[in-house]
Design brief:
10 helices
C-alpha cells in the first residue's frame, strides 16, 4: 500500500504509475462530487476527466500532501462550474424554477426504499442554478459571498436560489410522503 506522501512526491515528478494510483484512489469520491453537479453520468464522467487533467497539469502548485484531497475536490468543483458556464451560460443556469414542477414524481418511494440514489435523483431534478448553489452551500460549505464570486452572481441571488432549492426538495419529499423521514434526520 502506498502512502499519500509517496504518491504525492511521485506525481509531482510526473510519474505515470503514481498518477494512475492517485486516480484509482480518488476517482470514486470525485465522481460522486461530479454527479452532484451534473445531470447525467456521462456529464459527470466528462467533468471527472477534465478535473483529473487539471489536477495533473497543476500538480506542481500543491506544496503539501496533507492538502491533496481538499485541493483535488476544489479543482473538481470549479471544473464542474466551468462546465456549466461553457455549456449552458448563466442565463439558462438561473432560469425559472417552475421547470421542476414538470419533472415526474414517483409516489411509490417509501422510507424503506429511500436511498442515496433517490436523494441524488431529487437533487439532480432541481434547476441547474438551484442544484449548483445547493451543492456549493449545503454540501461543500462555501459561503453565499464565495458562491456569488465564483458564479458571477449577486449574493442575494445565491441566497434566493438556495432557498428555492430547499423549498423544491421539501415539495418533492412531501409528494413522495417522505417529509417525516427528512425532518427526523435534519
Amino acid at each position: 500500500m502506498h502512502s499519500h506522501y509517496d504518491i504525492f512526491e511521485k506525481c509531482k515528478n510526473g510519474d505515470a504509475k503514481a498518477q494512475r494510483i492517485l486516480y484509482d484512489l480518488f476517482k470514486g469520491k470525485l465522481m460522486g462530487l461530479c454527479r452532484r453537479y451534473t445531470q447525467s453520468r456521462e456529464e459527470a464522467q466528462d467533468v471527472l476527466q477534465e478535473s483529473f487533467i487539471r489536477i495533473f497539469t497543476h500538480f506542481h502548485q500543491l506544496k503539501s500532501s496533507e492538502k491533496l484531497e481538499g485541493w483535488m475536490k476544489s479543482i473538481t468543483v470549479r471544473t464542474a462550474i466551468t462546465y456549466y458556464h461553457k455549456g449552458k451560460g448563466r442565463a439558462l443556469m438561473f432560469s425559472n424554477i417552475d421547470e421542476l414542477s414538470n419533472s415526474p414524481v414517483s409516489n411509490e418511494t417509501s422510507v424503506q426504499n429511500f436511498t442515496d440514489e433517490h436523494l441524488l435523483t431529487l437533487v439532480n431534478a432541481l434547476p441547474d442554478g438551484c442544484r449548483i448553489i445547493f451543492n456549493l452551500f449545503a454540501i461543500e460549505g462555501f459561503s453565499h459571498a464565495e458562491i456569488a464570486e465564483m458564479l458571477h452572481i449577486s449574493e442575494g441571488t445565491s441566497r434566493s436560489q438556495f432557498y428555492h432549492a430547499k423549498y423544491l426538495l421539501k415539495e418533492k419529499l412531501n409528494c413522495q410522503n417522505l417529509m417525516h423521514y427528512y425532518e427526523k434526520f435534519s
